[in-house]
Design goal:
The protein is α+β, with helices and mostly antiparallel strands. About 30% of the residues lie in helices and about 15% in strands. Strands 1-2-4-3 form a four-stranded antiparallel β-sheet, with helices on both faces. The structure holds flavin mononucleotide (FMN).
Length: about 170
Amino acid sequence: MDFKELVQKRRSVRKFTDQEISPEALQTILRSALMAPTSKGTRAWHFIVVDDKPMLEKISMCRELGSQFVAGAAVAIVVLGDREVTDAWTEDAAIAAVTMQYQAADLGLGSCWCHIRNRFMENGEPSDNILRFLLGYPENLTAECVIGLGYPAIERKPQDEDKLKWENVSIYKP
Ligand SMILES: Cc1cc2nc3c(=O)[nH]c(=O)nc-3n(C[C@H](O)[C@H](O)[C@H](O)COP(=O)(O)O)c2cc1C
């Protein structure tokens, strides 16, 4: 599959089989994230890999909605940025997260982004605080998202070529 096809076939997957992800595949995904571009080359992200089922369940409850699929993932990767090192930590973390998603798709894995930054529980508690309590990461790190990974239990259609929003593209003419 070339990159053009991969981009079309990658879709968010929230239902996974019980098949484990091999250490080699996981390493390939993390390697790709560690090669992602960052502002000023700071590479100030941190990735926490979780495959422990009880912890996956706890992580899946860090939001009222949108995080439940993490409970059924084989692995979740919590993507954090260091606010003290770079003001572009959100962009850097997001790019690394998406890079992992494309690498996962290339390996036949499904993935989905669970957003954490600026997400709050009904009682006002930030989802990031919940993850910090669960995983024990320091104050300088903030979670951008959690990427849930696993072998897809459902088949998703590729992106529909006819529904691309070409109207959102304009060409500057001098
Ligand atoms: C910044 C961002 C935040 C997202 N947050 C969530 C989320 O919290 N929960 C979830 O299930 N999906 C989340 N998604 C996945 C989107 O819902 C999904 O990418 C979108 O519906 C398009 O579908 P596709 O990925 O299959 O093309 C997020 C995606 C992005 C890029």
